Amino acid sequence: MKHMTRRPRWKRTCLAALAALILPCVVLAQEATEKKDTQPEVKLPTDFNLRDIMTPAGRRGPLAPELIGEKEKMFASLERLTSEGDNGEAYFGPRGGRIIFQATMPGEEHDQIYVMNRDAEGIYMVSTGKGRATCSYFFPNGQRFIYASTHLREETPPKPAGGEYEWEFDEAFDLYIANFRGETIERLTDTPGYDAECTVSPSGETILWTSARDGDLEIYKMDMEERVPVRITNAKGYDGGAFFSPDETRIVYRASRTENYKNLEIYICDADGTNHRRITDNGAVNFAPYFHPSGERIIFSSNMDDPKNFELYMMKTDGTELMRITHSPGFDGFPHFSLDGRFLLFCSNRADPESGDTHIFVAEFRPYW
Q1: Which domains, and CATH codes, for the chain?
Q2: pTM, full prediction
């Protein structure tokens, strides 16, 4: 997203891929071989208990009322969950007691996947520690998660090819299922081209992701029993960042229909890939859409009011009744509601916009409607 004053180091594939402002070239990386991966030992917290993944949220994180903007009337309170590293794409666990996210921790060069308690304690890595990892999401049974990774590639992950917010869709990214002991259970994709931006349906029966397998960046879904990819989008241009509605009848996603990816708009369609309609039309970079638990509204991030700054907005599913949620000097993005809608999890660099580091926050949300 080249309009921001300072490029945050969290420029992850799932955001940058969507917010890229020029058509990226797919990195022609060495094809990963399917040999058994030797994974490093995962350092689990001393009090680790797998059952804790399914526990309800208990204690809350450190409060940061000073970081609530004067105009942020929908925030009854604000918690800051991270204070080091560069963090992004955080999602609540099945019952809100755990959070999964990606981060480049101090001393590390690339993102890995981490889990922490709802109160910001007990952070530990659950990806392999190799390559670059992104786009993690819980399965609702709390025993597994899905994510995208390049860890099977022997080479060092490539860096973006210069130019602000240009990003290569690295073809070494594939989808994996892992458990919370850091053990890879299954490789889900093995086709040439980029596979990432994965999410799981509320029932856990279906996944969504973005793939370049057919020559264009499109959204696919797959039943976890049948294992047959079904293409959801068919328009030329980038499509990605898809999520199911709470009742799994609709899908919301972001897409660019311009030849040079100069803007991203929010779209919605039926779960079978029919009835696509665009619900924003502002010529800005709109991304990270997510359904409110009611299924009646969508929250998303956009730079529609200031090309150099991204804020959170909400609207009805037909694109009407637009409402700005955040008013901060730094980036606000990756919104995700708790199942009951009480808490809004999001990522922001409001604590120190000049540093470029993005951190994880939880706001107690006051509905405005």
Answers
A1: 13-29+60-365 (2.120.10.30)
A2: 0.85
